[in-house]
Amino acid sequence: MATEEVGLAIPTPPSQNTGVCASLHSALASTASDSMRALVFERYGAPERLMPRTLPIPQPRAGELRVRVVATTVTRTDTATLRGHPFFARAMTGILRPKMRTLGMDFAGVVDATGPDVARFQPGDRVFGLLPERFGAHAEYLCIDSEAAVMPMPANLDFDACVVGEGAWYANGTTRVLREGQRCLIYGASGAIGTAAIQLAKARGAHVTAVVGHRHVDLARSLGADRTIDYQSVDFTALDETFDLVFDAAGKTSWFACRRLLSRGGIFSATDLGPWWSNLVLSAWFSMTGSARVRIPFPEDARGFLASLATLMADGRFRGVFDRHYRLAEMVDAFRYVETGQKTGIVVVDVNDS
Ligand SMILES: NC(=O)c1ccc[n+]([C@@H]2O[C@H](COP(=O)([O-])OP(=O)(O)OC[C@H]3O[C@@H](n4cnc5c(N)ncnc54)[C@H](OP(=O)(O)O)[C@@H]3O)[C@@H](O)[C@H]2O)c1
To answer: Are 73 and 104 in contact (CB under 8 A)?
Structure first.
């Protein structure tokens, strides 16, 4: 039974940034004109590994632009990378020690300088982007290749509204399989990935059933879900219907629990490895049998995706859902909060004034 009628207001958590480390505040308080503030980690571990550092402002090389970061985010990708979990992901991020020292995938800011051979941008341009491989947005300045995942900001949006790339990019890795009129169920549709998945699935013309906790029912509906199910009152795995796509966007269910919800040819996709790494094992097994019945989406083409996302954002078909705001000096608290697994949408970090 679906709970279309549950109508609780969506609480927007206040900016209760408690327990801020005093040394972090003072270390990040002021910098010389050729230096910048950044959060650096040298060993994998808990949020307390994040250390404030004063670093030289990076100089853009040929083809690069330098961005003065106004807003960034703390994501589940950042928290997992800080912890070095899952271990095999260290093949990309560094086995014993992290290769990158500053986290942060999303940024929005102002182009502050350009290196030689940059045609697309000039100082003063408002840009937003994604740093999927190298991170680096938890700093006041960053340099990025002008042909990488960096786009002009839609003119009608603020900086905060543009730090939406991480969740949307992962969501798109799954929702891109949908075609007009297909039916999908999104479990955990209230996180960064889930809120994006609702909107991207709707943009593809799919019928969306969003499964959320009761505090998020109104939110899911406001994002365009055709139907909402409160998983705290209804066991969605017992529904007597089928879907072309069941997307576990919270990492809290499994193919075994959901397989009877799949239509013939339907796909189960998950953002996490699943119990006993079952999603990884099953996706490998099914791909050997020539089927994509279970998938762990590996997103690709960040630049191409960001361009299409900018269009959706500019015409109002996609909007970020934002939870708390923190400042750079409150980064440890921001990581602790994201690690609770209870944020709604995106946690923003305000870095510089716009
Ligand atoms: N594959 C990758 O590279 C990758 C990258 C990023 C993230 N991830 C994974 O993707 C998942 C989603 O990431 P995210 O950033 O979107 O998460 P998130 O923002 O941290 O999700 C938080 C939301 O999940 C919901 N939730 C918590 N427990 C739940 C449960 N038992 N059932 C259903 N919903 C539940 C909560 O809302 P309710 O109150 O509505 O329950 C909460 O608002 C995470 O598990 C993360 O580990 C994977």
So the answer is: yes
Tokens 């697994």 -> residue? 341
This prediction has a pTM of: 0.91
- For ligand 1, atom 39: residue with the closest CA: 213
22 sits in which H/E element:
helix 22-27
User: Is the pLDDT score of 23 beyond 80?
Assistant: no
**Residue 32: what pLDDT?**
59
pLDDT tens, position by position, 289-303: 877 799 988 888 999
Domains and CATH numbers, the chain: 22-164+320-350 (3.90.180.10), 166-295 (3.40.50.720)
Which helix (H) or strand (E) element contains residue 151? strand 150-152
- Read off the tokens for 157: 């949006």
Which pair of tokens denotes residue 41? Answer: 């980690």
CA torsion through residues 197, 199, 202, 207, sign: positive
Worst-scoring range by mean pLDDT, 84-98, 109-123, 287-301, 335-349? 287-301
Q: Return the beta strands (E) in 182-331 as ranges.
A: 183-187, 207-212, 227-230, 243-248, 262-270, 294-295, 322-327
Helices (H), 114-243: 165-175, 192-203, 217-222
- The pLDDT tens digits for 41-65 are 999 999 999 999 999 999 999 999 9
d(CA 341, ligand 1 centre) in Å: 6
Q: 103, 314 in Cβ contact below 8 A?
A: no
Query: Measuring CA to CA, which residue among 324, 295, 320, 321 is closest to residue 309?
Result: 320
Report how far ligand 1's centroid is from the alpha carbon of 216 (Å): 13
